[in-house]
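Supplementary Text 2. Reproducibility record for the structural model of the 244-residue chain.

All settings were left at their defaults, and a single model was retained for analysis rather than an ensemble. We include the record here because the model underlies the residue-level annotations in Supplementary Table 4.
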Amino acid sequence: MKDSKKIGNIFQTTNYSQFKIRTDNRPINQSNVQKLVKSFEIMGQKIPIKVDSKMQVLDGQHRLKACVQLKMPVVFIVDDENMSTSEIAQLQATASKWTFADYAHSFATDENLVDYRLYRNFCSTYTEFPHSTAILMLSNLRASGGNADQMFKAGKFKVKSFSKAKDVAETLRKMSVYYKNYNRKGFVSSIIVMMNHKDFSEERLFRKLPKRCKEIHDFSKTEDYLDTLQDIYNWKETKKVYFH
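Retained model, structure tokens:
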């Protein structure tokens, strides 16, 4: 204890109303709360929740809900540290990892981050597309790597064209008749490339698909999808269009 520094105090209370849930925290997962309830019934609350001086919960909102449900005292630590959304996510990562939906929910509370509200709107409308393909369409990119995900988690995600993303999603949905795995990342990427070409005609593509769609398989690479779709697109056409 000689060289130790006191950084906070541990408190206990049943005055639940004093706690505040930050709007930029991830949504409460009721399944996680119920798991904690069962654990707390047997072992009690072993890990205190963390709040700032305003009693805003920085870490442990699920533990708080479990204590409230059991009507048991909440053990908490006060740490007067001004944390950003990203810092809260990092703090909670050891408990249960934040999903991209959690990040979107949190950043969407910032009035300046309209891109995240557009992302949530898009994902709620086109539920069949996972995060990896949603950001491709919204960013109008052929491919995105880990850097794009890091930018998303840091609150720096940007939508290039919401209307364009919707057009791509609608075209892909129409293609589900001809290819059931139309939401695969490589296939989505190939359609983005095609639709970005100045000479692309959706009518021409859909005119050819009924007779040639069986040639589309679950390829591992975007290039393979592009080769196949390009061949279908140019079938019996004098004027060829090359997408890559």
